[in-house]
Amino acid sequence: MTTYNEAIDIERLTETISDSGAIIETWKTRWPKVWANATFLQGRDFWSGAQLLIERIVVFRIRYSANMAQMSPSKYRVSYSGRTWDIQSIIAVADVDSGRPRVELHIRCLQND
């Protein structure tokens, strides 16, 4: 059984138009304090030009939600442990042993900052 012991926030990209007509993109929390299990898959530090870059990949496992299953990775991101994580994919996972469909969502993310 999965232990959901990490709190994550799921943020949505919103667009507003300024007085001058420019589009302003901001991130707003859509689902605060979603309980998850965080599994770090890989990470690396590397140089690109004169800048040190950090790349980390994590899968957040959460209880299934039909609304969250419909998230578009380009419009949502995860905030976790003081960092933001770009969503790469969202997969609904069934519990094969019990025969229950869509028990969890696996949200695969890449560290943003």
Task: List the keywords.
single chain; six-stranded antiparallel barrel; mainly beta; 4% helix
What does this structure look like?
- The chain is mainly beta.
- It has one helix spanning 66-69, and strands at residues 6-17, 23-48, 51-63, 76-80, 83-95, 100-111.
- The chain has one domain: Bacteriophage SPP1 head-tail adaptor protein (Thrombin, subunit H), CATH 2.40.10.
- A hairpin with a 5-residue loop joins strand 1 and strand 2 (23-48).
- It is globular.
In short:
This protein has one domain: Thrombin, subunit H, CATH 2.40.10.270.
Walk me through the topology.
Layout lengths: L5 E12 L5 E26 L2 E13 L2 H4 L6 E5 L2 E13 L4 E12 L2
Antiparallel strand pairs: 1-2, 1-4, 2-3, 3-6, 4-5, 5-6
State the total count of DSSP E strands. 6
Q: Radius of gyration from the CA trace?
A: 16 Å
Across the major sheet, the strand order is: 1-2-3-6-5-4
The level-1 CATH class: Mainly Beta
